[in-house]
Amino acid sequence: MVGFDGRPRLVSALMTFTHFNPRKGAIVRLKSGGPIMTCEGSCAAPEKDDPSKWVQCSWFSGSTPQRKKFPVEALEGVSDEEKQAALQARARRSGTAGPARKK
User: Fold this and answer.
1) Distances (CA, A) of 71 to 32, 52, 81, 91
2) Residues 4 and 32: beta-carbon distance below 8 Å
């Protein structure tokens, strides 16, 4: 599977072939791409739909916290490799990546 940004997405077979039900604290992304987000839990939908079909997610845009509800069908799990890459990128941006290596 390839994401919106053209990079390959690693999604486990379990998430692909079963109903994806992210739990509170799960790390997800929109299937169409975008930032890595944290699930805060199930929530009532804007149209008063079944709350088990919607998830409140949070993420940062720069240093600004963001929060929005998404239908479960629009989300996918994030691989461990993507989580690690996101943490490393965040550390580099914040200047906590450690000392630079000499060449």
Assistant:
1) 13, 9, 25, 30
2) yes
Is pLDDT at 18 greater than 70 in this prediction?
A: no
Q: What are phi and psi of 76, to 5 degrees?
A: -140, 155
CATH code assigned to 13-93: 2.30.30
SS3 content of the chain, % helix, strand, coil (to 5): 25, 30, 45
98-103 LR contacts (CB < 8 Å, sep 24+) = none
Angle at 60 between CA 14 and CA 20, to 5 degrees: 15
54-75: per-residue pLDDT in tens?
899 999 888 899 999 998 889 9
pTM above 0.70, yes or no: no
